[in-house]
């Protein structure tokens, strides 16, 4: 099984065609790039937060340090791409996606850490799946950029998942399935906002576009 097939199997559902069609429209590109930049910045912040919170876990520190650096490089690359296209990076309201996933996080340790790591794996896996699904519908420059991110995002997914398994000390298949169901519901349910990780576009959103 190749890496992308493994990721799709892990996710349990693919991005709805309606989302891909909306994302491919030229008028959607600024929203997509702006939110992508925010996602890269948030990913780096999440990695740094884990480093500060769990200072006694050397494997986590090393992997999150590398991940944070890579995400910030991606952030800079998105900003450069936006600037070259005459787009201005600005504030944007967050999608419901990450917050929706975090509603199921346990409050006591080590459950909290395991759940946060599993969520990290799902976010990175979904990003990877969307980069691959979007690329054929985009202009050459943007398609090439998104394809260039597949390897690192795929590794981030694997790092998060392996850390979760290592620190759990017991099987975590039930927790993975729990978050898989939440993640699929967020991706497949109608969404009134278009974001990089948003769900199936609502009729009102599609009409507005």
UniProtKB/TrEMBL annotation:
CDD domains: MiaE. It comes from the Bacteria. GO terms for molecular function: tRNA 2-(methylsulfanyl)-N(6)-isopentenyladenosine(37) hydroxylase activity. Pfam families: MiaE. InterPro entries: Ferritin-like, Ferritin-like_SF, tRNA-Hydrxlase_MiaE. One of its GO terms (biological process) is tRNA modification. This is tRNA-(Ms[2]io[6]A)-hydroxylase.
